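Deviations from the work plan: none for this task. Representative record:
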Amino acid sequence: MMKISVVFYLGPPGSFSHEAAERFGSDLKPERSISAIFKRVSMNEGYGVVPVENSIEGPVNETLDGLFRYEDIYVMASVEIPIEIFLASKCDRGRIRRVYSHPHAIAEAKDYLESMGDLEVVRTNSTSEAARLASMDEAGAALCSKKAAIEYGLSNMDRIDPATPNITRFVLIGREYRKDGSRHVMLCIIPDRPGSLHSLIGVLANRGINMNMIYSRPLRDSVWKYYFYIEFSGEVDEDLFASMKQQSVKILYKGSF
Amino acid sequence: MMKISVVFYLGPPGSFSHEAAERFGSDLKPERSISAIFKRVSMNEGYGVVPVENSIEGPVNETLDGLFRYEDIYVMASVEIPIEIFLASKCDRGRIRRVYSHPHAIAEAKDYLESMGDLEVVRTNSTSEAARLASMDEAGAALCSKKAAIEYGLSNMDRIDPATPNITRFVLIGREYRKDGSRHVMLCIIPDRPGSLHSLIGVLANRGINMNMIYSRPLRDSVWKYYFYIEFSGEVDEDLFASMKQQSVKILYKGSF
């Protein structure tokens, strides 16, 4: 795996994004939002690590839309991080009155929280932000990573067993791209008529190429119109890209890895 | 438009869901989550009104996944509600220190909030919940609907002009379905091999049928596998459904309207 210099990730420190960023670099810098990471990368200040898809909750829209908005930012690599959530606190279990976390973690721990009786649930921007807040609250706990619990001195930890496998895939983004990878990312706007998506993905189907991801996202400036985020695996050549372009109103090649 | 008896919506009162629910019935009951609405409908206690898609933020995952999970709940009608967001408070504009709202509204009002200087932003479950909280906070404001502002006595109102058209489509859900509508909802799991999505939507393309929405959602119990939510418009018959079924591992017909 490549090791590079400055890498921005979704902070504060201890987040799952932080874990992902450690796979790619050593000079890691927290940012307060996914959009802020895109802005840094676009200003050539370094690379970014952003979540792109979770195995339960689906696509991370802010990331998909960032790749669409910043045409000169590419996907350069990918890593999967298992999401292991802990209920972590400084105080004893019985004294917890408030639980802080990101909405995804709250959703995952729903049954667990219900079994704990009447608690105030506070939504936060990230699980590591939750850990930070819980560390300053005498009756507070966080749903967060083990890393975040340690970072903020929340020494009472209980692992929440997920009902289903929970993995988040992160991608490294930057202003360069390799063309020699085996997995490819494209963003496509197709004509607004029956059969146009069928024609576009026919280009892949006819070559026996496997689509790994396809997500549609609204075009923010016109109502009920979309672009498609497509990832596929296999041998590609200029001819394939040309054929896809022929079926599209607009197409952005977003890198191979 | 049909008028029916009990309709559950995402509360508290004054939400955009409340506005949508008024189009369908008169005995309206707030619920605390989309999942809770699905549970009520599945227990045959009434109908439900849930947001399915926003023109900026895309699909409402909890609704799509509810339709997948509750096989006996169908989409019966659809309505579009323009999302007009107001900054509303009891206190004077200059005294606002905290702004409450749903993350979508916060995202939309980002520029407006930044122009107001250093404010604490508190995320809530709904815009009407935000209005309720702001009404109890001497230095609080909410980003909410006009309806919610009035409901909670927030008489200082400023309309936030959206940068892009903002419309949410809501659907009426219930345990019956009509087969005679012009718009149709299907959920499909397709074989995990190259070309299978191409074959499925080929059934529609070959008949010149227009797809209005296609969203993929993770199958929560297996990693990186998906089901597709598909809406399309046009003439359908048993033969079309049979052909789609032939291309699918599992297919759920979710109603026409």
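Chain A touches chain B through 38 residues (CB under 8 Å).
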